[in-house]
Design goal:
Protein name: FecR domain-containing protein
Structural class: alpha+beta
Number of helices: 8
Order of helices and strands: HHHHHHEEEEEEEEEEEEEEEHEEHEE
Pfam families: FecR (PF04773)
Number of domains: 3
InterPro entries: FecR, Ferrdict_sens_TM
Largest sheet: 14 strands, mixed
Distance between the termini: 52 Å
Oligomer: single chain
Number of strands: 19
Helix content: 25-40%
C-alpha cells in the first residue's frame, strides 16, 4: 500500500471533470481550463487521470495543452517577452471529435509536449511529479495481480474507508460494511455483502462493473453511484452516468439524480439531491423510512438501538448527522412524538 500527498478534493475534482469530458459545452471547457490554470497540482492531477483512464486522452491532452499555453502566454506577457508556444489542438465544439493517434501513446504525447523548449521552465517540475507517480493519488491502493483474485475489505462501526482499485475505480466504504472485489478479464465484480458503498467507476467498455447484493444487482460501464444495503432494504442513487439495476424481477435504467428503493419486496423511484452526502458525516434524505434511518445510525454506534411500539414505515425528510447518533435520535423522538431513553449499552426509542 502506498499513499501520496495529493489532496482528495483535487483528485476528486479532476476525476469529475474527466468523467464529463465529452459532454462539456464550450463554456464548461473554458471553466475547466481556468481550473487547470489555478494551480500546478490541478494540472498534475488531471494529467494523471487522463493517463490512467485513457478513454478521453486526446481531448484531455488538448485542454491541458491549451491550459499550459495560456499559462506561458500570461508568464511571457508579464516578463515582457513574446508569447511563443506550441500549436494547440482544437477542443470540443471546434471539431466533431478528437480521436487519439493510433501510433502515438499518451505518454509519447506528454513527452513531446514537455520537450518543447519554451515550456521547460513551466513544466519541468510537473514532469518530475508525473514521472514519480505510483498508480494512485490520495487514496489507499488496492494492489491486485493480473489474475482475477478476490480481495475482501471491511469497516468497523463509525469507520469509513476510501480506496482506489487497480482499474482506477474509486470505492468509499461506509461504516460497518463488507465488500469483496474481483477484477477479472471480462468483468469487474463487487459483492456488497453488508452496508453501504459509493462507487466512481473508471470507464472500460470491455469490462462492465457489477455490484451484486442479495436483493439486486447493479451494472455499469463508467459512472458514479451509491448502493445502500443496510438493514433490510436496497437503495441505489446515481450521481452521474447511467446505471442498470435488476431487482425484484425488474430491470430499470437510472440516470443522474435518480434513486431506487427496494423495501419489503416493493420497488419505488425517487429523486435524490446527493448520491452520497454521508461521506461528509451527514445524510440528506427525502421520505426515508425510519427503518432505514435507524439502520444507518446503528452503523455509527456500539450501543444497540432498540425500538418499542414505533411504526418504522413513517418517513423522514431532511438532513441528519450519522455520527452524532444520540442527537439525531432526540430529533426523531421530537418529530414523531416518541420517547428516547439512553443507557450505557442501548438507546431505546419508544412510543409514548
Amino acid at each position: 500500500m502506498n499513499k501520496l500527498m495529493f489532496s482528495d478534493d483535487v483528485l476528486e475534482a479532476a476525476t469529475d471533470w474527466y468523467d464529463r469530458m465529452e459532454e462539456l459545452t464550450p463554456e464548461q471547457l473554458q471553466s475547466y481550463q481556468s481550473w487547470l490554470e489555478q494551480r500546478h497540482e490541478h494540472r498534475a492531477a488531471a494529467e494523471y487521470i487522463a493517463r490512467y483512464f485513457g478513454d478521453n486522452e486526446a481531448l484531455a491532452i488538448a485542454v491541458l495543452q491549451r491550459s499550459a499555453a495560456a499559462h506561458f502566454a500570461t508568464s511571457a506577457a508579464t516578463e515582457g517577452s513574446p508569447a511563443s508556444h506550441p500549436s494547440v489542438p482544437p477542443v470540443a465544439g471546434e471539431t466533431d471529435r478528437i480521436e487519439p493517434s493510433a501510433s502515438t501513446s499518451l505518454l509519447d504525447q506528454i513527452r513531446a509536449w514537455f520537450s518543447h523548449e519554451s515550456l521547460q521552465p513551466l513544466l519541468a517540475p510537473l514532469m518530475l511529479v508525473i514521472l514519480l507517480l505510483p498508480p494512485a493519488i490520495g487514496y489507499v491502493v488496492l494492489s491486485q495481480p493480473a489474475t482475477s483474485n478476490t480481495l475482501s475489505y471491511a469497516t468497523e462501526r463509525a469507520e469509513r474507508q476510501d480506496m482506489l482499485l487497480e482499474d482506477g475505480s474509486r470505492v468509499v466504504l461506509n461504516a460497518d460494511s463488507r465488500v469483496q472485489v474481483t477484477l477479472g478479464e471480462s468483468q469487474r465484480y463487487v459483492a456488497l455483502n453488508k452496508g453501504e458503498a459509493y462507487f466512481s467507476v473508471s470507464k472500460d467498455k470491455q469490462r462492465p462493473f457489477i455490484v451484486d447484493t442479495d436483493l439486486g444487482q447493479i451494472r455499469v460501464v463508467g459512472t458514479a453511484f451509491n448502493v445502500d444495503r443496510s438493514g433490510d432494504h436496497l437503495v441505489v442513487v446515481v450521481e452521474h452516468g447511467i446505471v442498470e439495476v435488476t431487482a425484484a424481477g425488474t430491470t430499470l435504467q437510472l440516470l443522474a439524480g435518480d434513486g431506487l428503493r427496494l423495501a419489503e419486496g416493493t420497488l419505488s423511484m425517487f429523486r435524490a439531491a446527493d448520491a452520497a452526502e454521508w461521506r461528509s458525516g451527514w445524510r440528506e434524505v427525502s421520505e426515508e423510512p425510519l427503518s432505514e434511518l435507524i439502520a444507518h445510525l446503528q452503523q455509527y454506534t456500539a450501543r444497540e438501538i432498540v425500538l418499542d411500539q414505533v411504526d418504522t414505515r413513517q418517513v423522514f425528510s431532511g438532513r441528519y448527522s450519522q455520527a452524532d447518533v444520540q442527537t439525531t435520535l432526540a430529533l426523531i423522538a421530537n418529530l414523531f412524538d416518541l420517547k428516547l431513553q439512553v443507557t450505557d449499552d442501548r438507546l431505546l426509542l419508544s412510543g409514548r
